[in-house]
UniProtKB/TrEMBL annotation:
Transmembrane segments: none annotated. Keywords: Endonuclease, Hydrolase, Nuclease, RNA-binding, tRNA processing. It comes from the Bacteria. RNaseP catalyzes the removal of the 5'-leader sequence from pre-tRNA to produce the mature 5'-terminus. It can also cleave other RNA substrates such as 4.5S RNA. The protein component plays an auxiliary but essential role in vivo by binding to the 5'-leader sequence and broadening the substrate specificity of the ribozyme. It comes from Neoroseomonas marina. Gene3D superfamilies: 3.30.230.10. This is Ribonuclease P protein component. The gene is rnpA. Consists of a catalytic RNA component (M1 or rnpB) and a protein subunit.
Amino acid sequence: MSGHAEQAEPRPGAPAGRLKKRREFLRAASRGKRAARPGLVLQAVAGEPGQVRVGFTVTKKVGNAVVRNRARRRLKEAVRLSLPTEQVAGWDLVLIGRDGTGQRPFAKLIEDLRGALKQAGVVR
């Protein structure tokens, strides 16, 4: 066995892309549809046809770096496990962590994501 790590295979259900630039987040905030749930806030705006891009943000109001990072990791995992990639193709999604994101039961967080996608009109 060599000392090199093998490349990980892309996970099924993983989003096609990430939103990373500030202007992409601002575009979703200004022109996007919003849906608030106890565990998260979703902003959705039409993007590239056939592609899904997801961005994550948790503000300092939520807590210190440890708390914010935990909330962000939980949001990423919820997206990885439950985002219906085919159904949301053509959307740019921004998930915003809330005070309860870090402590919310994970099953409820996934329900929040699915409900927010329906409320924003991203999926039916």
